[in-house]
Amino acid sequence: MGHITIPVARRLAENGSSGRLVCLEIQPDMACVARRCVEEAGLTNAEVREGDVSTTPQEPDTYDLASLVTVLGEIPDRVAAISSLRDALKPGGTLSFTEIFGDPHYQFYADLERRCLAEGLEPAGRLGSWLAYTANFRHPA
Fold first, then answer.
1. Considering the domain 59-141 in this protein, what is its CATH number?
2. Cα dihedral sign for 118, 95, 59, 78?
């Protein structure tokens, strides 16, 4: 844990952003490791919370960006997860997914797009190919 959290939090700080990074981790042991990594890195702009994105209440209209990197396929109720994250985004906020072929829980873009459209999110760009991609969806303003 911390492979993404630490670099993103550092980037926010380096850019002079007042933004905060909130990492939601479902596994208690991994949440502990992530907290320790954040603390050891001396980062004050990152917080690790324990919970499941599909069942842990999120603050509505709070986040500019929510990002799931090779995680969506591991969530049993993907529709609830996308819905929860959509509600947590500020209007105009972005929900971003990164998928890498070979991951046992790989999500095909067509399935992801169908789910996001059904939840009222708008496509906002895609990078990469079917082997590895990042797809962004925007919460309508």
1. 3.40.50.150
2. positive
pTM comes to 0.87
Is pLDDT of 2 > 80?
A: no
* Residue type at 108 in one-letter notation: F
Spans of all domains in the chain: 1-51, 59-141
